[in-house]
Specification:
The longest helix has 27 residues. It contains 18 helices and 15 strands. The protein has a 7-stranded mixed beta sheet with strand order 5-8-9-10-13-14-15, sandwiched between helices. Strands 2-1-3 form a 3-stranded antiparallel beta sheet, with no helix packed on it. The protein has a 3-stranded antiparallel beta sheet with strand order 4-12-11. Helix 5 crosses helix 7, helix 5 packs across helix 16 and helix 13 packs antiparallel against helix 14. The radius of gyration is 29 Å and the shape is globular.
Length: 568
Amino acid sequence: MIIWTKGLATVILLFLFDKTLSIMTALALVPSQVPGARHVVSKGDATTALHAHADTDSDSSAGDQVVYSPLPTTSSSTKKKNYKKKLSTPRTGNLPDIHWRAIPMSHLRSHPNFQPLPPPTMVNQLPTKEHVRNFRQESWQWDYLHTGRCTTSQTAAALGFLEGKAASYLGIPKSLRRGGGRAWERLTQVPEDDQSLAAMEQTLCEGRSALDNEEVVGRWRPGAKESERMWIPASRLRSPIRTKPFPFTAKYIPNLTHNELYERKLYLQQNPSSSPLQARMQWGNTQEATSVLTALNYFCGVDKKTTIHEVGMCGAAFDDEIVDPLLQGLKIGATPDAIICHGNGTVEVLEVKNHCPFVWNRISPHYAKTRKRNTNKKKKGKKQKKQTNDDDDDEPKDEHQEESGLPKHYLIRDFQLETRVPTAYIPQLMMEMLCVGDAVDLENSSKSKVSKPICTSAIMVRQTATKGAILLRLQRDEEWIQEMKYWLGKFQCNFVEKGKVPEDNFFWDDNPNSRYRKFLQRTIELSDNVEQVAFIDHGQIQRMVMERGFGGDSTVPLFLDRINKDEE
């Protein structure tokens, strides 16, 4: 009996030791040693599994979404990992990060393939009016130049494209539709000076902005970079274990820190976005430089002689030319997001459109409250007023959203890209080609012997947060541009000069064979007949990455709700 008891005890001890050893061995394994573990790097429509001996340098996978995907199992440890992964990429939230992985313009200006404009105070003379294009978009000079001028922001409205009937015919979304009143207000503005070259030079070059950084201006010179060591050219990246070339033209050095994410969260809690429309406008501004970088990486990767040039408002040279009878004395201008100067001497304007991923969560109490508030504005009475107050009391607090389980305000929309330029943007691209292509040549814009490049096409980058980007090319259409001038001249003559606010559907004609209807039909044809230059997979877009040691390979969340101060 005693012998049997000792034997049983020995078996139990051996069993427990074997289990303990197995657990210790499993804990000692790194992810690449666990059966079924792999790093998956998205590239186009295919996925490539990187084995343990492959290049593990972060440079080779910069911009790719790297995820850890072990074999399916029902163990509790795997469930915890899946739960953490689900937490890292939430699909709904209250605090949308409009700066999500964005590279700022101040950093893009130091890219080796990007030619920046000088600080505004360094532009001390204007040899011609067209030299006002040397003022940056964020400068007060750039704002001043818009007074009384039809720029791309007002062109579609002045053409009547955003009126109800024309917009419906063109398929323009209701969110973009508006009357021509804003364009009329802009064009009726009178500049402070007489718009002569001498007067413009005195106003723009001698007037100093209080926000100009004299320290930066003092050390800046043509060709110098404003930021120090922001990029490392791909040609200077050497690694004996790298099996593939670096995917971008230069490595971006700064990393996103957890403290920065937490500071954004605090700011959003104090200054929340009132609606997806506001978030959409902010997203377009903050993500602009990142989309320009997408075009830079593609075109400079195809041709190393290609450069991307920053540019201000173009088209002021038309002020000095013989008055175009079609424009009826209307002054025009356009500011592309950049200009692409190819190695063969051709020039293209670059326009980027960033599709915001944040939309209303329609089952959110905040969405229902907003709709009721907008409806109650049209009603009167104590009953409606009391209902509005009740809605305010029922509004869930942000800090209790997680605990209460109530739906979040916003959700992520996966925008599906189409091979077309929306009709609302055709006037913008044509105006940019007109103002850049027929204006004064860019100084040192290309190493080609061609001294007078003519802009005959435009590149549009449509970029998303989750579905990659598409690069489209729209060819210049001279007949369409002439029609654009004609209808802009009609707007100038019929409304601006007469001081008459345009009525609804001011150019619309019910006759399908009328001149205006043919103009709209040609716009639709141009929208559909564009060239797809390239599709850039989501993982191949260069964005800011998280600092090493934070969160492993988890993706940066689009919402900041779960970013905590004490997280590491």
